Amino acid sequence: MTLAWLSLGALFLAILISCTTRLNVGIVALSMAWIIGVYAGGLSPAEVMSGFPASLFLTLTGVTLLFTQAQTNRTLDKLAHHAVLSCRGNTGLIPVMFFFLAVCLATMGPGNIATAALMAPMAMVVGARAGVPAFLMAIMVGNGANAGSLSPFAPTGIIVNGIMARIGMEGLEWQSYFANFIAHSTVAFGGYFLFGGWRLFGVRYVHTPEPGEERGHEFDRDNWVTLGVILALICGVIFFRVHVGLAAFAGATLLGLLRAAEHGESVRKIPWGVIVMVSGITVLISLLEKTHGMDLFTDLLARMATAQSVTAMVAFLTGLISVYSSTSGVVLPAFLPTVPGLAERLGGIETVPIAMSMNVGSHLVDVSPLSTIGALCIAAIRGEEESRSLFNKLLAWGLSMTLVGAAVCWLFFGHR
Question: Is 60 exceeded by the pLDDT of residue 207?
Fold first, then answer.
């Protein structure tokens, strides 16, 4: 029992560190798993490291490599540029277009963070030129990126689906995706119209390109090859059930051989920090399972909820922690493994509503300025006063989403 409490304490400490410091919590988790597992638990280093998610590591690396190549050769950037021109001067449509463009890009494979990094600077600049309030543009592009985050092709979707498969919840990939998509669409468009976005549909915007802006936006041979490889990957996964990670490695290899993307630069730009963070936390979670610390964690959650309130409770709790911590790297790897035990302790209720509430609740808060997506939107703003104003508005938005997420999940995922 002492070992179980030690491992659970290590998890809480890792979550606290992720909320309060810039340390890579995956490295911290690996260190604590080694010390507690070997020197307190009497396990061998091999037993501790058996929890390393090799399949997840390879899948994340392959997918992020392929879409990093698509970023380095400007394929995704050119897609975004042409989408802006498609609005034909209707100011109200510009944020809507950025929402759906972000959804499509995130769904294709880059994921929410990479999509926001690509889209937020362009969206905020275009919005400023067109007279769209920065807050409205931020919630549309940020929620759009998050709406596609649980795609089976995206890093977060790969992480979530891997965890859910490991706890006996296979085959829910698209159900998770659409639940998250519907929640973010509802919140984004609700906020957009509630805070005055409807007025923008009567305003015309005439795009005046900056010097040299129109040059270099046509698709070239490298871009078409990249789009073809991505389309082949998506079709292969959907229709032929190929392994998304290994297929992505094959696609990245093909792009390198055809010189359609700079291979070396793309490898260097892979978000290794995120991959290490997820892998390290997974090793610590595996140790909790070996030491029965996960049972203690589940018991603590069960004491905080009833069968009627559990969906709202887990959505609020995961959302509150996600305001300050990584959703895909810390929160979901820590909470999703508790779902089967939590459902059992609450009288054998269904597991799916609890898991969906965790997925949705933890993501709805991610347009907060304390998250990467919100910070990217603020970084694109020119002027200290406007940046501070947007920071305050997004902070209020992100914190309010803990309550909104709890209400949404209670309504849609069960309130017996």
Answer: no
**Pure H helices in 216-271:** 221-240, 244-257, 263-269
Per the prediction, the chain carries an average pLDDT of 88
pLDDT of residue 387: 80
3-state class of 309 per DSSP? coil
Q: At what angle do helices 221-240 and 244-257 cross, to 10 degrees?
A: 160
**Residues 392, 322: Cα–Cα separation, whole Å:** 18
Residue whose tokens read 């390393």: 52
List the domain range (segments joined by +) for residue 44.
2-207+216-412
d(CA 294, CA 300): 10
Question: Span 220-231, mean pLDDT?
Answer: 93
Q: What DSSP string describes 139-160?
A: HHHHHHHHHTTT-TTSHHHHHH
Both structure tokens of 199: 């007025």
Q: What residues pair up with 90 in beta bridges, in sequence order?
A: 204
Query: Domains in the chain: how many in total?
Result: 1
Token duo for residue 51: 């929890």
pLDDT at 215: 52
| Spatial separation of the C-alpha atoms in residues 120 and 106, rounded to whole Å | 13
Residue 209, pLDDT above cutoff 70: no
pLDDT of residue 232: 92
